[in-house]
Design a protein that fits this description.
The structure holds 2 protein chains of 2 kinds. Chain A is mostly beta strands. In chain A, 0% of the residues lie in helices and 48% in strands. Chain A starts with a strand and ends with a strand. Chain B is built from no helices and 9 strands. Chain B has a 5-stranded mixed beta sheet, with no helix packed on it. A 4-stranded antiparallel beta sheet of chain B has the order 2-7-6-5, with no helix packed on it. Chain B is globular and about 40 Å long. Chain B is mainly β. The chains are: A mainly beta, B mainly beta. Chains A and B meet through strand 4, strand 5, strand 9 and strand 10 of A and strand 4 of B.
């Protein structure tokens, strides 16, 4: 089993609130990712990180921000939640490049509902 | 990022072998082919990865022809618990980017 954790699993919040979705991994992976997925739809990469103090925006524009101060921790923040942010957010991590695998380990996800 | 094409959905019955084919006409020389499985309300899970010919593990087999423009995931004797979405991805596993493109996948439904 992959050691990657996300909290909370479910969050219902009102418009305008600031929220932080937590993601932690204990595998020592350098690379971490945030995906957004609506029911029955594809995963969209919204943020990724190569390592500490390295973050990049993904393929799908997102109003969220991320930080990577520690290797094991990759939180995602929404400064002002809106109903359009309602979705499932999945965090993943993978090993250092060149280790010979495209395997990304996924957390259980956070289901966010903004009222 | 190279994109892939796979059927939107497939149906099967318990005990049958299921083959899901994926097209990746623009696959690059350094790209590997990787398949993931996703159950509802969970994150995707790695199934198998290969470069060419055939790869087999305890869960599935992956067949890749010589031109590598397609691949087939084979699930032997499926059960109800194999009902899930299956994603085919291509990517350079040696890349520092490590980014993968997840399409919509194939919804496999296994019936009793």
């Amino acid at each position: 089993e992959a050691d990657i954790y996300q909290t909370p699993r479910y969050l219902v919040i009102g418009t305008g609130k600031k929220i932080t979705l937590e993601c932690s991994q204990t595998m020592g992976h350098d690379k971490m990712y945030w995906y957004q997925q609506d029911p029955g739809m594809e995963l969209h990469l919204i943020h990724y990180s190569y390592g500490v103090n390295s973050t990049e925006k993904g393929d799908l524009s997102s109003e969220s921000t991320v930080s990577r101060i520690r290797t094991e921790h990759f939180p995602l923040t929404l400064e002002s939640a809106r109903p359009s942010h309602t979705s499932q957010y999945l965090c993943a991590s993978s090993e250092i490049a060149g280790k010979g695998s495209n395997e990304q380990f996924f957390g259980p996800g956070t289901r966010l509902t903004v009222l | 990022l190279a994109k892939t094409t796979q059927p939107i959905s497939m149906d099967s019955y318990e005990g049958q072998e299921v083959n899901i084919t994926c097209s990746h006409n623009n696959i690059a020389t350094n790209d590997y082919i990787t398949w993931y499985q996703q159950f509802p309300s969970q994150g995707p899970r790695f199934i198998i990865q290969g470069y060419k010919t055939k790869v087999t593990n305890e869960v599935a087999s992956l067949f890749i022809p010589a031109d590598r423009k397609s691949s087939t995931l084979s699930l032997p004797r499926v059960s109800l618990s194999d009902t899930a979405v299956y994603y085919c991805l291509v990517g350079d596993r040696g890349s520092t980017l490590g980014r993968l493109y997840f399409g919509r996948g194939t919804q496999l439904t296994v019936w009793p």
